[in-house]
């Protein structure tokens, strides 16, 4: 769009005068037109407030997006913990049930101290410890994947938009610092108008950019969730299967 020559008018205190900037003719934003014709200083102030309003809108959007991202991570953590909680409860109940049955059998054979029973009890503890370690590992993988996904997909994009949005707050001052405001006021105003036009759709760009990153993040999340669910299920299933075998062996102790 900037490649095309845009033919519009800048009116300043230079009413009806077109401002040509590197062969482009740029338009004064509506908000600035409202204060025309005015003192030049007022125009600079109006540009400053325009850029600041833009910064505010971008900043607000970024905050909402960050809040949504935090909420999504919070919900995801709750889902993971609830899933692990179900498996942990299942493992504990099964462990208690098997321990009781082994004890009952030990009492029946009057063999609570028998090496066979003691070994079975030790093995039950070992299996429960192993299941707990497996759950820790699954939690660690889930945490690492999610943290990486946030770091890679979401935050750099947000940070980049935040940085460039922050620059808007000083746009006018920055322009003044690099121009001769006395001789080049019309050029400065035109450049500011040009710059503002280039940034005007920033909120849409931020939304599109960050939403894309959120989609990428969501895809990672879905994969992690599938993996962690499968891991949790298999930890529970393996424990139940192994401790059942153990119980059958323990019931053979005599
Ligand atoms: C933030 O989340 C809310 C509630 O889920 C949603 O309605 C809103 O569109 C989201 N906003 C953005 C900018 O993603
Ligand atoms: C944003 O600015 C901060 C602080 O100046 C800097 O550390 C960071 O690298 C910048 N990030 C991006 C993506 O530009």
TrEMBL record:
Residues 1-22 form the signal peptide. Residues 200-227 form a coiled coil. Keywords: Coiled coil, Signal. This is Uncharacterized protein. It comes from Anopheles atroparvus (European mosquito).
